[in-house]
Design brief:
single chain, alpha/beta, Rossmann fold, 7-stranded mixed beta sheet, two-stranded antiparallel ribbon, 7 helices
């Protein structure tokens, strides 16, 4: 086995070096990828107008992601999973993309604004493919989710609290326009749903689930450790994530149910 090339700490984004409290998640240790770390939104500058609305980079807990996907599949999606395109808006280093590709989606797309995170995500995808873990095509796109052209056919959009209210409002308006004549063809999974009120104000979306999804014991320990190692203690972790599932039902229909 060849040794891995060492990365100079000067080339790392703040939050990805040991001095910044960087701690590898068991997911990375098991699969040989690089999705760990905690990067504050202020350190994800790209020059784009939406930079100031970025929250932070942190990989979703695999147990939360898988549990939420299982719950979504019980909601009666409009089509079999093989007809859905999975889209991670704010994909970061691609942990959600990798996990999604273990299922037979039509395609898995990661959208990420920060070029450094895009490069890391693409390397992770190459590793994932080499290990034959991907069961669907994967592509990582560098760009803004609000400017993305959503594909034909059913889409499942994943959001791990990637941006604040301004961008979330713009994204939902874009989705409402793009899917105006496609009721049922858009579902959204929202983890750490800080902008839930924005969804509630946007006509045409029906909430299918609202509640807490617990981390596995291993994920809880790992995430608590990562948070505890932050030099500034800016972020914290619980044993669960507040989550919701939404479906585009059309501009004339608006209701909510748990």
């Amino acid at each position: 086995m060849q040794g891995k090339k060492r990365v100079s700490s000067r080339s790392l984004l703040p939050g990805l070096s040991v001095k910044d409290g960087y701690t590898r998640h068991p997911f990375d240790l098991e699969y040989g990828v690089r999705t760990s770390g905690l990067i504050a939104g202020r350190n994800l500058k790209t020059g784009h107008r939406h930079d100031r609305h970025s929250t932070a980079y942190f990989g979703v807990a695999p147990s939360v992601f898988k549990s939420l996907l299982r719950r979504w599949r019980r909601t009666g999606p409009i089509a079999p999973i093989g007809e859905f395109t999975f889209i991670d808006a704010g994909a970061g280093m691609g942990r959600g993309v990798l996990l999604a590709s273990e299922l037979p989606f039509r395609e898995v797309i990661g959208i990420e604004l920060n070029s450094t995170l895009v490069r890391i995500a693409r390397k992770n995808v190459s590793t994932w493919r080499a290990e034959k873990r991907a069961h669907s095509p994967i592509v990582v796109v560098e760009g803004d989710a609000v400017e993305f052209s959503f594909p034909e056919g059913p889409c499942l959009v994943f959001l791990f609290n990637p941006f604040g209210a301004t961008v979330m409002r713009r994204l939902l308006r874009k989705l409402a326009a793009s899917f105006a004549d496609r009721p049922g063809q858009l579902d959204l999974l929202y983890v750490n749903n800080e902008q839930e009120a924005i969804f509630e104000c946007q006509r045409g979306f029906t909430r299918l689930f609202l509640g807490q999804i617990r981390r596995s014991r291993a994920d809880a320990i790992a995430d608590h450790t990562i948070m505890a190692n932050q030099p500034d203690g800016e972020y914290e972790s619980a044993n669960y994530e507040d989550c919701s599932i939404w479906r585009w039902t059309g501009p004339r229909i608006r209701k909510s149910m748990k």
